Amino acid sequence: MKNSAEENATHSHAIVWLDHLTAKVFRMGLSGVSSHVVHAHLGSSHLHHKANTIGSGKVQNDQAFLAEIAKSLDACTDVLVTGPGTEKRTLNHYLESKRPSMKVHVESSDHPSDDEIIARGRKHFGFASPRA
User: How far apart are CA 90 and CA 64, in angstroms?
Assistant: First the structure.
């Protein structure tokens, strides 16, 4: 996996896997894959409802987290957003409002490995897997 600023500028496709704490961004093109991880800025990593307390047990949208993910997709024109929960839909709506010309596709997924995420992106965008 490559990870250089020059290569990032040439990759117009990306797959993003995210949950409420982390976004894994894999930008891809014919020349390979580059990766970037974005972390949320939450006060707590726990998401559960506690009886007899005020609040829904849901984390509020972290606008800085969404903005940082969007920044990592600056040169991208076509993005596949995956992950468990509702965060993928939140990112989709954010990207639609900030980057209306970007094609954004949303699919559910559990917690795959990085290699599985990359393979899903390659399949979605029609990029051949590299030969071993």
Answer: 13
